[in-house]
Design a protein that fits this description.
- The complex is a heterodimer of chains A (338) and B (292).
- By secondary structure, chain A is mainly α.
- Chain A is built from 14 helices and two strands.
- A two-stranded antiparallel sheet of chain A has the order 1-2.
- The radius of gyration of chain A is 21 Å and the shape is globular.
- Chain B has 292 residues and is an all-alpha fold.
- Chain B has a single domain, classed as ABC transporter involved in vitamin B12 uptake, BtuC (Orthogonal Bundle), CATH 1.10.3470.
- In chain B, 74% of the residues lie in helices and 3% in strands.
- In chain B, helix 2 packs parallel to helix 4.
- The longest helix of chain B is centred in the N-terminal third of the chain and has 32 residues.
- The chains are: A mainly alpha (338), B mainly alpha (292).
Chain lengths: 338, 292
């Protein structure tokens, strides 16, 4: 009798997990077909940026959404990835694949070193510390002669190839790269959120003081969240450097990147599997379109619309856009039961 | 380095520190009252600077005389921001902290965009004023009058704020609401009204600093950013919610910044302040005078 009561929810849990995975694979496959229908370069660029920020925001979501540590300094990790990849390629001839991996590991180590003192800070104190740390990074890179200081680093032009990850004319390979990056970040999130770490993260988020009493393991799970999040953010940064083939401090480490990584998750729904992607799908094309049509000569109207969207969504949908689906799904369940 | 040069740096640091403190105290006040960090604080400062610029342009009256008008305008801006945005952010049932961050951030973008739309991204400055370009020679230490004016205004504002909080009914209501939001409702204090006035007061204080700053600093749509960052550092260093902490931390930030500029290249002058802030925070996570 009691066996049935226990196994029923477990089987339904396994079934819903499997369903999520199947849906995800279908979505990835569907996205992979898009380049067959789109040939326009501008649209392709917007799609690449959308997928990039979906992946970046998914990485941010691991620390900010699931673990509840609202970082506003992820531009630091993005910058480490972009600079590591650029310097290794331009000065040492190491291709972007190696550079991204190196940048990712370096970022993860930096995140661990910073996490140790920063995780003692709570709420706003934590968020502001992350802004300040990223700002110190920006200032240092600005004055770092070996890294090109304010002038930045220009990538040399080479023939199109997957080996160097350089494609001057046809941008479609970049599309597949970021799609892959997004799929990996999604799958990593999917795998971890229902593991023990995932539960600890939610415990940390929901009740930091109670979670603290659980001790060292919980602290380690927070450090793990920071390292994973930083690793993938840096890979995104390295990709971005290859994609635009020119970086300078402002273009990869400015505070607006920290925001751009957090915003899609916030708009789509923090701590949800599809929130960052949904948020990026709305935010990035909208930002690009308003910039193209209203932003001429810095008119500022693009900022007004962007700001209004951020304000209205965060005020009316505190759980993000995914919150609407969750609620309607609950209603449907309630109806089905009745 | 000569004693005189050192005194010069120290004096400049103290004067700019007083202005940093004045920028920060409004932020700290609002946080202490209702646990909300206003991420549009820098944009409030920018708005006040443009208000001063516009008023001087239209009326041709000296900025010193126009100061009360700018403060009044910013009080209205603060109350409106509470009534139009923050009130709703506080009702959020899920992720309240995040909603506050991003709602005020959206507000910041809107204000910045509007400033850019109406005033263009150009750098402006108020050319003529009674104080402009004059310096005071204090035994070889040269102090520009606009900064002295800013420092004096800041000290007066802190004095006034102290009296307001300790001697008036509004101050008592403010203190009571920050102690216990539920209990004040029982004694008939309208919580919403106190919050709205708190936002008005916070914005008026940053408006005052904007009115002072506009006399000697360039005005452009993104001017709030760097000052806001310093204000967050100042508030976190002094302890969120502590008014005395904001004053002390503002002075520390001003002096450390000035001293850093002696040692490191000018572009890195903020590194000293940021490092000090991090060092203090890692030892005392709630700042110098904060309570958690």
């Amino acid at each position: 009798m009691s066996d049935i009561a226990v196994t029923a929810p477990i089987t339904s849990f396994v079934a819903s997990r499997r369903r999520q995975l199947v849906i995800a694979l279908i979505v990835f496959a569907a996205i992979a077909l898009i380049p067959r229908a789109v040939s326009d370069v501008y649209t392709m660029n917007v799609l690449i940026l959308t997928l990039l920020f979906a992946a970046l925001s998914q990485s941010w979501n691991i620390l900010g959404g699931y673990c509840g540590q609202v970082s506003l300094g992820h531009a630091l990790y993005f910058g480490i990835g972009a600079y590591a990849t650029s310097i290794l390629f331009v000065k040492f001839g190491i291709v972007a694949w190696g550079g991204m991996l190196f940048g990712g590991i370096l970022s993860a180590l930096v995140a661990l070193a910073l996490g140790y003192p920063c995780f003692r800070l709570k709420g706003h104190y934590f968020s502001i510390a992350t802004i300040v740390i990223a700002e110190i990074g920006l200032l240092l890179v600005h004055n770092w002669d070996y890294g090109g200081a304010a002038l930045g680093i220009q990538w040399p032009f080479n023939p199109d190839s997957w080996w160097t990850l350089q494609f001057a004319r046809n941008k479609v390979p970049y599309f597949y790269f970021v799609l892959g990056l997004f799929a990996v970040t999604w799958l990593v999130t999917y795998a971890i959120v229902e593991s023990r770490w995932g539960y600890w993260w939610r415990a940390v988020k929901d009740d930091p003081d109670a979670a603290e009493s659980l001790g060292v393991t919980v602290f380690n799970s927070k450090m793990g969240a920071a390292a994973i999040s930083a690793f993938f953010t840096a890979i995104g940064g390295g990709f971005y450097a290859a994609f635009v083939s020119y970086i300078d401090p402002e273009s990869v480490m400015h505070f607006r990147f920290s925001l751009l990584m957090a915003l899609p998750a916030v708009l789509g729904g923090v701590g949800s599997l599809w929130g960052p992607a949904v948020g990026a799908l709305i935010l990035i094309p909208m930002a690009e379109l308003t910039r193209s049509y209203l932003g001429g000569t810095g008119s500022g109207l693009d900022l007004v619309i962007y700001g209004l969207l951020v304000m209205v969504v965060s005020l009316t949908q505190p759980e993000g856009i995914m919150g609407i689906f969750k609620r309607s799904a609950k209603k449907a369940d309630a109806k089905a039961e009745a | 380095m000569t004693t005189q040069a050192f005194l010069q740096v120290l004096a400049s640091g103290i004067l700019i520190g007083l202005i940093y403190a004045l920028i920060a105290v409004g932020l700290s006040l609002i946080f202490g009252l209702m646990d909300v960090v206003n991420f549009a604080h820098g944009e409030f400062l920018m708005l006040a600077m443009y208000a001063m610029f516009g008023l001087v342009l239209v009326t041709a009256i000296d900025p010193v005389l126009l100061m009360p008008i700018v403060v009044g305008i910013m009080f209205v801006v603060g109350v409106s921001a509470y009534a139009g945005v923050i009130r709703f952010a506080m009702r959020a049932k899920a992720n309240p902290g995040m909603v506050q961050i991003f709602a005020t951030f959206g507000l910041a973008l809107v204000i910045q965009g509007l400033a850019q739309y109406f005033f263009t991204p150009d750098y402006r400055n108020i050319g003529n004023s009674w104080l402009g370009g004059k310096t005071l020679n204090l035994g070889g230490v040269f102090l520009p009058w606009p900064q002295i004016y800013g420092g004096v205004i800041s000290l007066l504002a802190f004095g006034g704020l102290y009296l307001l909080i300790t001697r008036t009914d509004f101050g008592k209501a403010l203190e009571a609401t920050r102690e216990d939001q539920g209990a004040v409702a029982l004694v008939g204090i309208d919580r919403n009204r106190v919050f709205a006035l708190g936002w008005g007061l916070g914005a008026a204080l940053v408006g005052l600093s904007g009115a002072v700053l506009a006399v000697f600093y360039y005005i452009y749509p993104q001017v709030g950013g760097p000052f806001a960052l310093i204000a967050y550092v100042t508030v976190a260093l002094g302890g969120f919610g502590s008014i005395f902490g904001a004053l002390v931390a503002g002075l520390i930030v001003g002096v450390v910044e000035a001293l850093t500029a002696l040692i490191l290249p000018p572009a890195l002058k903020s590194v000293g302040v940021y490092s000090l802030y991090l060092a203090v925070l890692f030892v005392r996570p709630s700042g110098l005078f904060g309570r958690l």
